[in-house]
Amino acid sequence: MLKLRVASKTQLTDQIVGLKLESADGAALPGFGGGAHLNLHLGKGLSRQYSLCNPSESPAAYELAVLIESESRGGSKAVAALAVDDVIESDEPQNHFGLKTASNHRLFAAGIGITPMLAMARELEGRGSKFDLLYRAKSSDKAAFYSDLINSDFVQFSFSSEGTLDLADKVAAPGADEQLYVCGPQRFIDAVLEVAKEAGWRSDQLNREYFNAAVPELEDGDKPFTVKLKSSGEEYQIPVDQTISQVLEDAGVFVPLSCESGVCGTCLVDVISGEPDHRDLYMSDEEHAANRQITVCCSRSKTPLLEIDL
Ligand code: FES
After folding, report:
1. Quick check: 45 pLDDT over 70?
2. What ligand 1 atom has the least distance to the C-alpha of 295?
3. CATH classification number, 2-90, choose in 2.70.98.50, 2.40.50.630, 2.40.30.10, 3.20.20.105
4. For residue 147, how far is its CA from the centre of ligand 1 (angstroms)?
5. What is the pLDDT of residues 200-237, one digit of tens each?
6. Which of 269, 276, 294, 280 is nearest to 214 (CA)?
7. 225-308 has which CATH code?
């Protein structure tokens, strides 16, 4: 576990706070690439993942940008309450959204989704790779890092205050070994992916990371089912109005959780038998079809019994 001291806290926009976190005990900070995130432990069992903005093999500090939401389920309020010199714990950087090998990288960011995209852009710029970035925001004063990026020749801004965005025009048809990355609110990601698929992008060329995902809701036809744990053989009834993780936590079974909305992958466990009913946004269509893992914070079961590797 890393111990990090808040070295600075800056208001990047009226809703976005920039944090610079240095080692609190002098230990060297592990390096990371574009697309990586930190899982911050914010007290009272609350942990939240935030994308890192400053990729480096030997960082002097970690830089994050956090959207402070009034409807937050806790994470952004805890970040808003942090003060300079506070010390918090964090896991080492992890990256499920890293850059792939490609002849050209197309980056699409909206809102706070700029954070991993900025890190990717910095890494690609450092490598001398071919890439471009479309950054959609409400307006220039709502766009974090606007003043850092305005003179960059790789970025194209698009402001909703100035009109709608013609994604078909921006996405265009792919080259054979190009990669597309998108991050932001779910509606933006879904729109970019839909346009990209229509334009001929293959699923292995499309990379996405969700922010602001809604907690998956009950669906018509949801039924209770039984979850069996491989380690103990214990069985638990999952009613229609509770998730697997809620039932297990109530029973005292530890389940690693972070977003609790099917976005981060923290709660992934292997499926031993049975067929999951996937509700997450974390795994790809291919991973869902393979049914090897399940996100227990939101997904359910299509079969009456689901055995999982817990
Ligand atoms: S806790 Fe994030 S996907 Fe389940």
Report:
1. no
2. 4
3. 2.40.30.10
4. 34
5. 999 889 998 876 555 566 677 889 999 999 999 999 99
6. 280
7. 3.10.20.30
